[in-house]
Specification:
This protein is an alpha/beta fold and 213 residues long. It has 8 helices and 7 strands; from the N terminus they run H-E-E-H-E-H-H-E-H-E-H-E-H-E-H. It is 38% helix and 15% strand. Helix 1 crosses helix 2.
Length: 213
């Protein structure tokens, strides 16, 4: 199954993402090529995941695994099979947060296996405005558990216009992906979250005007 996922990501997902977004990617040299590593990106569209999977080189893409809500992506057998086997998600049971269950256990297991985990610290998709919501602390908990793992901030601009929340048919529009230098755990969740938020907002400020704006 691994080679099928690799072929689909390279021969299907990558061309589709490039056609729909025409993404301008800057800072590609900051992408981790092996794990454990964490990608922390803003989130306005399901197109974000496809975009992120498309920007990694072929030798690293099989290690990239997006953290995703199990209540959405595992809600029926077909979507669940595609999500697990082709997208390679790390399922997060967000509805069980606060119940005492370790909802981040699957992400920890993936990091321990040497994977590159994609997380969206806002917790859910925003609207098409590209504004950033408050960040949740799950990413800090993962960074604390794996202090050697770089946490790479990524700002995605425009994906919320390509496929807005609630829509199912994408509209081709230009997007931008900006990848920043990694943030490292130094001890202290509050300080880490503030550094990550500042890094994401700096990338947002650097984003070029999009051609459709």
């Amino acid at each position: 199954m691994g080679w099928i996922r690799w072929l689909i990501l390279l021969l299907v997902a990558r061309p589709v993402a490039r056609f729909l977004t025409g993404a301008d990617v800057t800072g590609r040299e900051h992408l981790p090529l092996k794990g454990p590593a964490i990608i922390a990106a803003n989130h306005n569209s399901h197109m974000d995941t496809l975009l992120l999977l498309s920007i990694f080189p072929s030798r690293a893409v099989m290690r990239v695994r997006p953290a995703a809500a199990s209540d959405y992506f595992l809600r029926d057998p077909v979507i669940g099979w595609v999500s697990r086997n082709l997208i390679g998600i790390v399922p997060i049971a967000r509805g069980k947060a606060g119940t005492g269950e370790d909802v981040l256990a699957p992400a920890r297991e993936a990091l321990a296996a040497g994977d590159i985990i994609v997380v969206f610290p806002e917790g859910t998709r925003g609207d098409a405005s590209d504004d950033m919501a408050a960040l949740k602390s799950g990413v800090a908990r993962l960074a604390e558990a794996f202090p050697e793992a770089p946490v790479t901030p990524v700002w995605i601009q425009g994906a919320g216009r390509v496929l807005p929340k609630g829509e199912v048919i994408p509209v081709p529009m230009n997007c931008a992906v900006l990848i920043g230098a990694p943030v490292h755990w130094q001890g202290g969740r509050a300080a880490f979250m503030e550094e990550l938020r500042a890094a994401l907002l700096t990338l947002k400020d650097q984003a070029p005007p999009l051609r459709w704006s």
